[in-house]
# Entry
Amino acid sequence: MTSARAPKPEPLRGRFVVSLRFAYNGTAEDGERLIAPLRTVAPAVLDTVRDMPYTEVASIHNEPTEPVPYYERGIMLREFPAQALDKLVELVGPDSDTTLWIAELRALGGAWDREPTVPNAVATRGLPYSLLGVAVGPLPEEQQLKASVAALLDGMQPWQGDRRLVNNLAPDEATDAAAIYGAQRYERLAAIKKTYDPANMFRINHNVAPAA
# Structure
């Protein structure tokens, strides 16, 4: 769900739109069949769905390639019933007073939920949705940007899961890596860090310190 309050090129300028973004790693015929019901929900402003090589996958999100001042953070949702949908529309729909640039709901599941043969650092398996708020503006508006994102996430708190997606955390939320990854994953990551990066060179991130 994307706010139309941010400047956009035609034909999006001055409009409040919902953006559906997806990828399907299968045949073009099956992909067309799967998205056909979505095309019947509402008139399309832009329909850019097409068969594409993997090298063009970044065009699906079509994010800016130049630096943009913004603030973002997100939460996981353990469910998304009709009441949650109504609340989301209330918070960021066309009749709201939100100043958010983007409120993004991602449906997960599928391969995301399957534990791999070789363990990795994904700590959010089993939670079906990710909700992200993005506010855009200069540094002097930092507090307003943070308040806009907080209004969205706080409003959806009744459906919030107890784990966090590390990709969608603000820097000030990522200080406790052990809480983010969980004790078992964190201990394994710390052991790997001790082996391959004992001096903690790669620390400008949601840092996992090398095991003692």
